From TrEMBL:
InterPro entries: DUF455 (IPR007402), Ferritin-like_SF (IPR009078), UCP012318 (IPR011197). It comes from Leptospira bouyouniensis. It holds the Pfam family DUF455. It comes from the Bacteria. This is DUF455 family protein. CDD domains: Ferritin_like.
Length: 292
């Protein structure tokens, strides 16, 4: 199979199982260098995008299984969009270096595993995909993706970067409520997200002009109303960015960044858990509890 054919299949197939077909191990040469920018993915009726705003349950409400299921539904939606958009990138940037395209393919495969993990666990809590409206926040950034560097800045350094924080926060809170199965899923995904951000950093770093540092270059690649606020979670874990290969100046600038949206999220529910800064890592996982 050619990479372009596989990417089109993931993007245009309406059914969920088609979007979860893993990449083949061997590829035919594409021979196609024309950029193809698909404006919207194929989705069956129950997977359609919605403009209806549905808030994710507050952290203190995750003692309820139904709220855990709804939270994982939000996360599963993000994984599905990521699968589609990395497939989109394969079509939009056919001239990207082979190492970067191979990284996108591997990311797709890992996001598919993550989606199945979320799906299986939220099903345990009685929630099915499509039970609540599906936002399309990642797809709304399509106009930002003018180059593979801007794609990497938004998808990898920002959205996946923020998930380095969120996966830690939720791993800790699920563990607080003695839901170690779901906590372990979050830690497993955290470890993969380090690799995803690192792949984006590699693509991003190659294009930094001599007269700019990495933070300045990042700011030049994103456009308002998208801001660096999207690149970090309720709590910021600087160590995670070092693990992903970002430099000290970038990490400090991101830690210090504030804009008019800062503080809109109620952090009181975060603070009451006393989550601390120590990272939850994969070496503590029970592999039998987190099968996709």
């Amino acid at each position: 199979m050619k990479i372009a054919d596989y990417a089109k299949h993931l993007l245009l197939a309406p059914n969920l199982e088609d979007k979860l077909v893993p990449p083949p191990k061997h590829w035919e040469e594409d021979g196609e260098t024309k950029s193809l920018r698909i404006e919207k993915p194929g989705r069956s009726l129950h997977l359609q995008f919605s403009d209806k705003k549905v808030k994710i349950p507050r952290l203190e409400h995750l003692n309820s299984e139904s709220n855990r299921g709804l939270t994982l539904h939000h996360f599963a939606n993000h994984e599905l969009m990521a699968i589609e958009l990395f497939a989109w990138a394969l079509l939009a940037f056919p001239d990207a270096p082979k190492s970067i395209r191979n990284g996108w393919i591997k990311t797709i495969e890992e996001e598919q595993v993550h989606f199945r993990m979320y799906l299986n666990r939220m099903n345990d809590f009685g929630v099915q995909i499509g039970d609540i409206p599906l936002n399309y926040i990642f797809w709304k950034q399509l106009g930002q993706f003018q180059t593979l560097e801007s794609f990497s800045a938004v998808m990898s350094l920002s959205f996946e970067g923020a998930n380095l924080d969120y996966s830690q926060v939720y791993a800790k809170v699920f563990s607080f409520f003695d839901d170690h199965i779901t906590s372990d899923i979050m830690v497993y995904i955290f470890e993969d997200e380090i690799k995803h951000v690192k792949r984006g950093v590699r693509a991003f770093e190659k294009s930094i002009p001599n007269e700019k540092n990495s933070w300045e270059h990042y700011l030049s690649l994103i456009h308002f109303p998208f801001t660096p606020r999207r690149a970090k979670g309720y709590l910021f874990f600087p160590e995670t960015r070092y693990l992903a290969g970002l430099d000290a100046n970038f990490v400090k600038q991101l830690a210090d960044y504030e804009d008019e949206y800062t503080g809109r999220v109620n952090l009181e529910s975060v603070k009451k858990f006393g989550l601390g800064s120590e990272l939850m890592r994969k070496n503590r996982l029970d592999s039998h509890s987190i099968q996709p």
